[in-house]
Amino acid sequence: MELTKTSRILSVFHLFRYCSEVSFREITDLLPVSEKTVSRDILLLKQAGVLHIRYSQKRKAFVLIDAQFRAPQFPQNRTRKLYLEKIIRLCTLMVEMDGEYPVGWYREHYPVLSDRTRQRDFAELFKIGYRIRYEPADPWGEPGHYSYEIPDTYGLETFIRS
Length: 162
Fold this sequence. Notes:
Strand 2 (52-56) and strand 3 (61-66) form a beta hairpin. This protein is of the alpha+beta class. It contains six helices and five strands, in the order αβααββαααββ. It has a three-stranded antiparallel sheet. It has a two-stranded antiparallel ribbon with strand order 4-5. Helix 1 packs across helix 3. The longest helix is centred in the middle third of the chain and has 19 residues, at 78-96.
């Protein structure tokens, strides 16, 4: 399966959530992209304020400085700004979403967004191994509900080239 641009960017973010040090080689071995593309993706994540890293010449790798989100640097271009807002929202979901009631959490944090946007966001996370699924009502009268799981083993198996 070929990753979309958004899935690829979220995959890079996911990698840094679980690894404090990552080299270009490690990223390009997992994702079928060039170092230049990785650099652009990292720059976008930095602009969004969701990734605070530096490149260490000594280690020949990116080193995570801080996992806290920062204020984003929004561009003047409206389309680019909306895309950056989407990346921030998806990264926030990856970090903060409540596993017990993901739909309620989403509606509480993003009340002005439509159910269709929520479904698209959940589908985007599903592409990189995050599982948000609906469990229908059972015959014994238990109501249906959503569940949310973060990938095991850092989800790295999802990035293997097809």
